[in-house]
Amino acid sequence: MRALTLDAHGGLDQITFRSELPAPEVSSPLDVRVRLSAAALNRLDLFVVGGLPGHSNAPGWVLGADGTGRIDECGAAVTGLHVGDRVIINPGISCGSCDYCLADQQPLCIKFGVLGEHRPGTFAEYVTVPATNVQRIPDDLDDTTAAAFTLATLTAWRMVHTRAKVQPGDTVLVQGIGGGVAIAALQICKRIGARVIVTSGSDDKLTRAVALGADDTINYRTHDVAREVRARTGKRGADVVIDSGGTDSWAASLGSLGRMGRLVTCGGSTGPTLQTDVRKLFWNQWSILGSTMGSASEFAAIVAELRAGHLYPPVDRVFDLADGRAAFAHLASGAQFGKVVLQIA
């Protein structure tokens, strides 16, 4: 099969397109094999290429977390799914039997892993996953939208609904609009009925965010984000801040929070080290919340939104699988607004 693989951790020069890899087999009676038609990049894929602490991948490792296609083989014990079903994939794999999994908290499973990082991924013609990790989608949904949907939307859904519990009328600050999670968070918050302020270092991205429903925008290169948020909320501050930047955005995120505010983070794209004045934390009674991926019920919830025609992710560019290294370079540049997609079929 054709696939985009990693030879060694380091730079993008370690990414190689291969055309004669063996296709994965259905080794568990509860697995399905999906013949992929498209897949999408996430910032996680850049981290995998660069190398993550305490984790390494063997040469020839298949990259990629998000993808869409049709089931071409089902394990003997799979029910409710059939060969030919069009599906999208939840890239978070859990054991299915521990206390966390049984409580619908799969991201807390001690064996939790992500396609492309802990298991061979979706930048290939075929991938094998547990049947519980796929959901059927309509045949008339285009491949690029379907491929771009799951990881970012699932992550944002858990951040907004489950962790921060955003309510109608809340003021939400979404840092770094342009990436998949930030855009999905904007869309989800607007569906709830919140007021959303977004930040970016690009005026063009801010303009595009307004077209998606953003109520207010702040260019963090030309303005003090925390001061602007307070000025635009009558000194009250934001009820919720959505932050995946880490080091570079942390001070502004905390400074933007109002009393009893909730800051929820899912990543550290600009660095993992944070500084917090604990006096402000306890005096303002802030809640700092971590969030990773999503549960089985949250996966079902976002797919229901997709089937209803909501939360479509904007797609920035589409590359052929063989040009995958160029797709990675485009994502790494930070110039994209929306998802970068690989066409496979």
General description of the model:
There is one protein chain. The mean pLDDT is 96. The protein has two domains: 164 residues, Quinone Oxidoreductase, Chain A, domain 1 (Alpha-Beta Complex), CATH 3.90.180.10; 135 residues, Rossmann fold (3-Layer(aba) Sandwich), CATH 3.40.50.720. It has ten helices and 18 strands. The protein is of the alpha/beta class and 345 residues long. Helix 3 packs across helix 4, helix 3 packs across helix 9 and helix 6 runs parallel beside helix 7.
List the helices and strands and how they pair.
Blueprint: E1 3-6, E2 15-18, E3 31-40, H1 43-50, E4 61-62, E5 66-74, E6 86-89, E7 92-93, H2 99-102, E8 113-114, E9 126-130, E10 134-136, H3 143-163, E11 171-174, H4 180-192, E12 195-200, H5 203-211, E13 216-219, H6 225-232, E14 238-243, H7 247-256, E15 257-265, H8 278-283, E16 287-290, H9 296-307, E17 315-320, H10 324-333, E18 339-343
Parallel strand pairs: 11-12, 11-14, 12-13, 14-15, 15-16, 17-18
Antiparallel strand pairs: 1-2, 1-4, 3-5, 3-9, 3-18, 5-6, 6-10, 7-8
**Fold-level CATH name of the largest domain:** Quinone Oxidoreductase, Chain A, domain 1
Percentage of residues assigned to helices:
25-40%
- Principal-axis shape equals globular
Question: End-to-end distance, in Å?
Answer: 11 Å
CATH architecture of the largest domain: Alpha-Beta Complex
CATH superfamily annotation of the largest domain: Medium-chain alcohol dehydrogenases, catalytic domain
The average pLDDT is: 96
Helix segment tally: 10
User: How many β-strand stretches?
Assistant: 18
- How many domains make up the 3D coordinates? 2
Largest sheet: 7 strands, mixed
Report the structural category.
alpha/beta
- Please write the CATH class name of the largest domain: Alpha Beta
* Percentage of residues in strands: 25-35%
Q: Mind telling me the C-alpha Rg? A: 20 Å
Extract low-pLDDT stretches. none
Give the SSE string: EEEHEEEEHEEEHEHEHEHEHEHEHEHE
